[in-house]
Design brief:
Helix content: 25-40%
Number of helices: 16
Shape: globular
Radius of gyration: 26 Å
Structural class: alpha/beta
Distance between the termini: 23 Å
CATH superfamily of the largest domain: Glycogen Phosphorylase B
Strand content: 25-35%
Largest sheet: 10 strands, antiparallel
Number of strands: 23
Number of domains: 3
CATH class of the largest domain: Alpha Beta
Strand order of the largest sheet: 4-5-6-7-8-9-10-11-12-13
Length: 518
Amino acid sequence: MYYFINNTVNKQQSGIGHAEMKRFHLFKKYKQPVKILTTDFSRSLTDALRFHGVDDQSAINMYDFFGKTAHVPTRKFGIDDLHLPDKFKVEKIDKHYDVTQDARLIMRIVMRDDKPDWIESITYFDSAKRIIQGDFWDCRGYRSLQQFYDRKGNVRVRRALDNHGKPFFESFDFHKDYDGDHQTLYRLIGYQGYDWQFSGSKNLIQFFFDELVKQDRERGENDIFVSDASLADAWSLLHMRQPAFKVMHLHNNHSNNEFDVMHGGLNFNYEYSLDNFKRWQGIIAPSPSQAHDVAARFGDQPKTFAIPVGVVPDELFNQPKQDFSKREPGRIVMIARLSHEKRIDHAIKAVAKAIKKVPNITLHIYGYANDESGDKAKKLVNELNLKKAVTFEGYTDDMDAVYNRAQLSILTSTTEGLPLSLIEAQSHGLPIASYDVNYGPRDIVNNDKDGFLIKSGDIDAMADAIVKLMGNDQLRQQFSDAAYQSREKYSEDHVWKHWQDFDRDANRFFQNLGEAVD
């Protein structure tokens, strides 16, 4: 069984989340047993998984595993289901209800935004109007979490409940730091007839991984863990006691020095994993160039596999190519989180320069904000008087429409892994102008054929590339035709061949393991 590991799954996914889902559906298509594995407690997880086409049988969450709540049916739970006493007064205020008795606030009931007649949470108050308890509902309609507060409003105890209201997990927060770790005690209640205590989440997750492997081995299955969130789960994976094929998946530059990937400091997301390089059974890099550099820096054991994170679905290959005359004249798109490493300001400044020579161009930025970069970028747009030319479109799921409408895609990041946005743009026949950063752009873009690779940080050169492409209809069409040809290397069949090579190595591991046991 393949397990693709992440903290959680959200409806609005990051690039890593999108890559994981593309891989999951590729495995499903080729009938390779696979599950999405998550370790965070999330009340909205089931809705998010279903949104991305993942059913209950194809996902496993640590808390659902221990609570035996993986296959709970969804049902409505509203205010009437509370059966409040007649002596309580219930008053609707905006999106919540206040429940009082003799003018004293007893509880506050908050309803879900997407289902206004379903309960989201209930907060309970003492006679001094201090919060003493919070109850929270899972998206499937049952109370799944309780929190208990001290007199200062700090959460002291969290309790996870199954769909029958029985607690199966507790955490106790001591609000003390020791060696940089916030001290919390974790406890599983009644698991296999015993209560289990853990000094932190890493130990709990390790126990979960081991229990999962034991369960699968009893059914004759070998487990392959692909970690898409090694910052959170590497320690737990590398301290497992049960045999499994454990692989760290790189999604970005392994070094935080884009100019010296062989000696520069390590990206903090991968530092622990790479410091323990030889304890893995394999490493996955999304591009051949990064796979080469990782092997050169850390060694050839374990093997570093070069497997693309992007997959162009067969459905897209079967669709007619977008007629360039149907694209919106001058429309440039940038698909990126509004985050400092994406250098949104470079794209805006480049457009400010290019628009002087090609007045009809517009830049449309798609992505959610996760730091102050979004506000800074919007301020820059105002300062440069580009409000009519630059639009922040937010997050969207309809990427086909985004790419089919545009004439050019640009990327100005400081570092990447193998940017999905460029693969997707290319697969829709879009010319590309991208900074030539580690890693990905040079693996995707064929310079001067289907796009332009530009020295990292050179805003003037980016502006020149925009002018060159957006000012020449014939060149754009030529690059678009080439882009459609270039996308072949990310076809489902091509990417799956890489995974078949990987699978053979994993099977050899288990074969050798069996021989050693014999």
